[in-house]
Write a structure and sequence with these properties.
The protein contains ten helices and no strands. It has a single domain (about 10-255), classed as CDP-alcohol phosphotransferase transmembrane (TM) domain (Four Helix Bundle (Hemerythrin (Met), subunit A)). The chain is globular. Helix content is about 70%, strand content about 0%.
Length: about 260
């Protein structure tokens, strides 16, 4: 089940796991398995990938990074199939990603003996890249699909939907805001007018999808198996410069 109508869909390089995710979601549709349980499974897969990185099992790490991306898509697919959207699931998913991303970078820092400041700079770059991708993508989803859980501006606690607890939503929203608020404000400050823009072409969204978490994790895995681990942290720092390129392109297209 796509997040966008067919005419607004783009080739998402970070979403390569979607077909398998849809298959998994259909298998689980008529079971008692919940989307949050699937989110927990992708968190475990991410932890297994980190363990493999630390012990030098890079092909296994690539497998678990890809599996994590597949399961990361499957929780949302299952929520849509069961018609059980929730802010709880949306925030829990994002907070889980944030924690895992930090641990991924720290594990690379550990095996490459990089400077911790440089590693944290790479983490910031990783998060800013993902924030720009999500910013543009959520704008499209809100514009064309009436998405009920992903909001362009996360500036206040949402009201709990049917089947979820308001207190849980409140707590997870605060954690989400702590993790992502600074990145959201930076990206919004760089491209305030994106929400009012009339034109986000599919080819630009495909290019920006290289900032998507699925593609980022795939790159990390590929760097590892080709013994290029020392280039991972410098790559994500330097690739962050493309944030300004993509924003400039969007702004020029909407003049």
């Amino acid at each position: 089940m796509s997040k966008l109508p067919k005419q607004n869909q783009f080739f998402d390089l970070s979403d390569y796991g979607r077909p398998i995710a849809q298959f998994i979601a259909h298998l689980l549709k008529n079971t008692t398995c919940t989307p949050i349980q699937v989110t927990l499974s992708f968190f475990v897969s991410g932890l297994l990938a980190i363990g493999c990185i630390l012990y030098g099992e890079y092909w296994a790490a690539l497998f678990f990074l890809i599996l994590k991306s597949v399961l990361d898509a499957a929780d949302g697919e299952l929520a849509r199939l069961k018609n059980t959207p929730s802010h709880t699931g949306r925030y829990f998913d994002s907070v889980s990603d944030f924690i895992l991303n930090l641990l991924f970078i720290l594990s690379i820092w550990h095996i490459t003996n990089s400077d911790i400041f440089i590693a944290l700079l790479a983490f910031v770059g990783l998060e800013l890249q993902g924030t720009l991708y999500n910013y543009y993508y959520v704008i499209l989803r809100n514009k064309y699909n009436g998405d009920t859980t992903s909001r362009v501006f996360e500036n206040k606690t949402p009201t709990a939907l049917s089947g979820e607890n308001q207190q849980s939503v409140d707590i997870l929203y605060r954690i989400y805001s702590f993790c992502y608020g600074p990145y959201d404000r930076i990206i919004y400050g760089l491209d305030k007018k994106a929400i009012k823009g009339k034109y986000l072409p599919n080819w630009l969204m495909t290019a920006v999808s290289t900032f998507g978490l699925g593609f980022q994790l795939l790159l990390i895995g590929i760097f590892l198996v080709f013994d290029l681990k020392t280039y991972i942290i410098p790559f994500f720092i330097s690739y962050s410069l493309m944030i300004f390129v993509f924003i400039l392109i969007r702004q020029l297209l909407n003049k």
